Amino acid sequence: MPARVIAIGDVHGCATALDTLLEAIRPQADDVVIPLGDCIDRGPDSRGVIERLLALRDKCQLVPLLGNHEEMMLNYLDGRPQPDDWLQCGGAETLESYRGSDGKTTAVPDEHVAFLRTWPDFYETNTHFFVHACYDPHYPLARQRWNLLRWHALRDGLPDPHDNGKQAIVGHTSQKNGEVLDAGYLVCIDTYCWGGGWLTALDATNGRMWQANQRGQLRS
Residue 220 and residue 71: Cα distance in Å, rounded? Predict the structure, then answer.
């Protein structure tokens, strides 16, 4: 059993908040750290966030999940059609973060793209499961529809508890008051960091929580 299983809500390019959070958490080699997806877009430094996560792989067991924004970015880079315009959904800010000192937008490094392609849709332990957005309570995680896992907003209604009896830890649906949504069997930790709220981390093993914002402030 890992020492800690720590989920991190939607970072959305907020590298300063992520740095503040990681400094407080201080991930260790036997910790599992699970960014819940939507690590990119909207905020000012998506490139920095990806670089932080790449470095974090050497310090702990890192399991970033694929969010709808990573899906849109990969579709854009692959030239595949998609229902939403990635550039209008925060992708323009992501490309801007890759702009070089000469003022020209550079290509997203191959290492970053390859890293994003490794991100799974879910992670589970004996007591919890982690997905980006939502889930069908009656299907095993391995049989869930990808659009439900990555796109379904909780404001359209909370799902029932999953048949597996485990607590769900999710992101995606921003809680604009900066407070965690805790329904008991489901906890949403997207607390709207990019919009002026907080970036939340939750240790599923003991319920401890940390929050940081883009001003470098920390609360727990």
Answer: 31
